[in-house]
């Protein structure tokens, strides 16, 4: 196995173990703890040691991990890597139980800008967080992941909709409820959840109080292509960038003040206590800096890399890209640029990122949206405007963004991880 294969396999294992942001944060936390990072409680006093490694979670779904570097913070600033833990998906409604023609189904909310067609005819499972009361009356919470296929959204046969290939649209309220089982008395959602909890080490579970549960496709991530040129998986947007940032942080040593921030709620606008528009990152950086003046001095020596996947130019739809800015899979990370500040990149930060890629022998590409199309956005402009930190928006090129099966090149994440490590270990930023 080459180093790249090894990296990709470990990343695909992470993707499979992380069907929800809760699981992604748990998986990242486990790797951080194994590497000597210590969890901090935001409600308590912190005593940070030079060379110390720490992390903070909020809501079990957003995470900030940082090295309190040995070099003086005011001389070097922070090297920040940002990504998001959430992906578009189908979430169960609070009162999810539906019954129709003898079938048990679940009502779902569409989370974020999901591409809905790929969800049909998939073997779906369920994962997320459940709050319950024990038979003794205590409140508990746990993460669950059923792993096995327990639901499916069958397509309507073409014979019953002759226009299916020309004109089928998807109504999220009426077309998306999955079929779970033949309906009997004990197949309401609470009964099924209690049955699952009791079978998986929570024999004390007495009553379901609340949950945050999502459906996911059980097909495992895979290397695809005649020579394994591609990686196919759900949630490449944006767990790929979380994993790459984590790998960079773990390898960056303890000299530089490096920070990994992985926010939930990016796909729904970032405005929450744990989203990029909330105070989480700023509050942590201010506590690291100690005083307001130190924070301001450090932030002006800092750089943020906001990593989120980019759109590769799809060979069947080349007209959806500007002719001069069509990123290719396996041709390196993409710097994302938008004159209207949908991306935070500037010519200065682009030059810095290009220099990091050059130092790592990794090629780099550029993306701008066609001038007659609307542009997406990332946590880059939000974090950049909240902190006043110089930022570059980048990401690996992918196809099928927001599908439940996305596609990336098998060289790009590995190349970007080298750049992440180089950047997060970089004590002095070059003058540009
Ligand atoms: Zn994204």
Radius of gyration from CA coordinates:
22 Å
Order of strands, main sheet, comes to: 1-2-3-13-4-14-18-16-17
Low-confidence stretches: none
The CATH architecture category of the largest domain equals 3-Layer(aba) Sandwich
CATH class of the largest domain: Alpha Beta
Instruction: Indicate the overall shape.
Output: globular
**Strand elements, count:** 20
Helix content: 25-40%
Quote the CATH topology of the largest domain. Answer: Aminopeptidase
Short characterization:
By secondary structure, the chain is of the alpha/beta class. Helix content is 27%, strand content 27%.
Describe this protein's structure.
With 432 residues, the protein is of the alpha/beta class. The chain is 27% helix and 27% strand. The two termini are 39 Å apart. It binds zinc ion. Zinc ion (ZN) binds next to helix 6. Zinc ion (ZN) binds at residues 84, 237-238, 266, 308-309.
List descriptors.
single chain, alpha/beta, Aminopeptidase, Aminopeptidase i, Domain 2, binds zinc ion
